[in-house]
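Researcher: Quick test of sequence recovery. Tokens follow.
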């Protein structure tokens, strides 16, 4: 582990997908130097465009200042994890929802972390205790689950693992507050709080469509008008990504052993077909 005398206030984000780029944008707007890593050069370019477009839109609405918009343009893009990452007091991993992929990434961090850096995972369902065991410093590892889209949603779930030091959880909560977020501390159980409740709702909507209880539009309209949800469950699943929803349901089903979390066959078929929602151009709706 690399030694350093003091933090520079930098935050490193690993993964430039929808969640990673959103987290990076939030951190930059809050005044942090941000290093955004992804091994895919095209993904980094797409993230840059998406972050700047989002920041410009928020600035036009008065939600952020011109200075904050400019800060988003200063986010540093990195295809490799280099010595620069030693300057980050917090590293937030936000790659694909696959525990083994996350563990492989953590192996690359040991020589590129400040000796007191906190490593947080944005996982929405993986075991924090299991991930921490594969990290360079388990006591300085915890879950930091942002909601999607990160620039707009106020909540961050903070999830300690069995090895997590209380100081680590407190640091992550402090960072979340500095980002303008509010926190809920959740136990390290599959799905934590938000997805433990949300995923069965989405899954039941998939079954309702599969059983022809109503059209996709009808199901979403019923929940929006009847339950005052801002977005229907099928549109929300498309926004999250159907592959991500399926991955989380699998973790819940396997981790809790309860048949109510069994992924709907329709969802599995759509993911197999490559219909992943908004990011692929087709899910329950076309985009």
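Model:
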């Amino acid at each position: 582990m690399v030694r350093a005398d003091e933090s520079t206030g930098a935050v490193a984000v690993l993964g430039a997908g929808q969640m990673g780029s959103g987290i990076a944008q939030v951190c930059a707007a809050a005044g942090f130097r941000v290093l955004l890593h992804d091994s895919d050069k095209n993904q980094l370019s797409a993230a840059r465009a998406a972050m700047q477009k989002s920041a410009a839109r928020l600035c036009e609405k008065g939600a952020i200042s011109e200075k904050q918009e400019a800060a988003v343009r200063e986010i540093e893009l990195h295809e490799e994890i280099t010595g620069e990452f030693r300057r980050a007091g917090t590293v937030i991993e936000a790659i694909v929802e696959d525990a083994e992929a996350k563990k492989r990434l953590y192996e690359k961090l040991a020589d590129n972390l400040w000796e007191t850096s906190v490593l947080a995972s944005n996982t929405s369902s993986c075991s924090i205790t299991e991930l921490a065991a594969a990290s360079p410093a388990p006591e300085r590892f915890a879950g930091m689950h942002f909601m999607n889209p990160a620039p707009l949603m106020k909540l961050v779930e903070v999830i300690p693992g069995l090895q997590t030091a209380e100081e680590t959880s407190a640091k992550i909560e402090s960072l979340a507050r500095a980002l303008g977020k509010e926190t809920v501390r959740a136990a390290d159980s599959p799905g934590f709080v938000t997805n433990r409740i949300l995923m069965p709702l989405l899954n039941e909507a998939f079954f309702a469509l599969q059983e022809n209880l109503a059209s996709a539009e009808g199901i979403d309209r019923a929940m929006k008008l009847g339950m005052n949800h801002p977005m229907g469950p099928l549109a929300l699943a498309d926004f999250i990504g159907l592959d991500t929803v399926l991955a989380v349901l699998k973790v819940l089903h396997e981790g809790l052993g309860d048949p109510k979390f069994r992924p709907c066959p329709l969802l599995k078929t759509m993911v197999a077909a490559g219909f992943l929602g908004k990011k692929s151009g087709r899910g329950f709706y076309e985009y």
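Strands lie at 10-14, 33-37, 76-78, 88-93, 118-121, 141-146, 155-160, 182-185.
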